[in-house]
Design brief:
10 helices; mainly alpha; 215 residues; 0% strand
């Protein structure tokens, strides 16, 4: 019975994590403020940077808070479901939550499976799971974006730093499953990098625009 309840709790956790991830604030805010779909403008990406370029700082700030907080919310709701139904939160549940909320954000069921690239939502998840790792990747992001003024490059750099920081802190802190933690981080980083594949091509051929320049 306990195993059955745990399985049900994990399925519900995964389901709600995906649905929460599918709530795309870039699309919602753009429709509210401009009565249009952000995916039809600028880079075509349903993310904060494109909203900033298209609509300005106010709407972009709302998207930033919304996408960041939904990553945190997915983890917290997942923990509540697991504790209520099974009385425990197994270590692998956080990996499941992180993966599903990311997939929901990148491939939202509410918006034709065409969403954002996952930077803000993954940051929200990471903050809840390991604030030390979050500070490292935030520092990497801020340093790169301040020097290069290219948000995509900073995002990719932060994604690369995520599994490295995870492994270091896991080994130093002697956590029970350091390599599984790292493997999960690699998977999440892989999704982020995959979603930036178009940006990577532009970075390699020198056509990626710096922040503040119009498309």
């Amino acid at each position: 019975m306990e195993t059955f309840l745990l399985i049900i709790a994990l399925l519900l956790t995964a389901f709600f994590a995906y649905l929460i991830g599918s709530v795309n604030f870039a699309i919602i805010v753009t429709r509210l403020f401009a009565k249009k779909d952000i995916r039809d403008y600028g880079s075509g990406n349903a993310g904060m940077t494109n909203v900033l370029r298209t609509l300005g700082k106010g709407p972009a700030a709302i998207v930033t808070v919304g996408d960041f907080c939904k990553g945190m919310l997915a983890v917290l709701i997942g923990h509540l479901i697991l504790l209520f139904l099974s009385g425990e939160v197994p270590f692998y549940a956080d990996y499941l939550i992180a993966l599903l909320v990311m997939l929901g954000h990148c491939f939202p069921v509410f918006y034709g499976f065409k969403g954002g690239k996952g930077i803000l939502v993954s940051a929200g998840v990471i903050l809840v799971l390991n604030w030390k790792v979050f500070l490292v990747i935030l520092a990497v992001f801020l340093v790169v974006v301040s020097i290069k003024k290219i948000v995509s490059l900073a995002s990719i750099s932060a994604a690369v730093a995520f599994p490295i920081a995870t492994l270091i802190f896991a080994l130093v802190g002697k956590v029970p499953h350091p390599f599984l933690d790292t493997l999960s981080a690699v998977l999440i980083s892989g999704i982020v990098i995959f979603m930036h594949r178009g940006n990577i091509k532009r970075l390699l051929n020198g056509t990626e625009k710096a922040f503040g320049k119009k498309k």
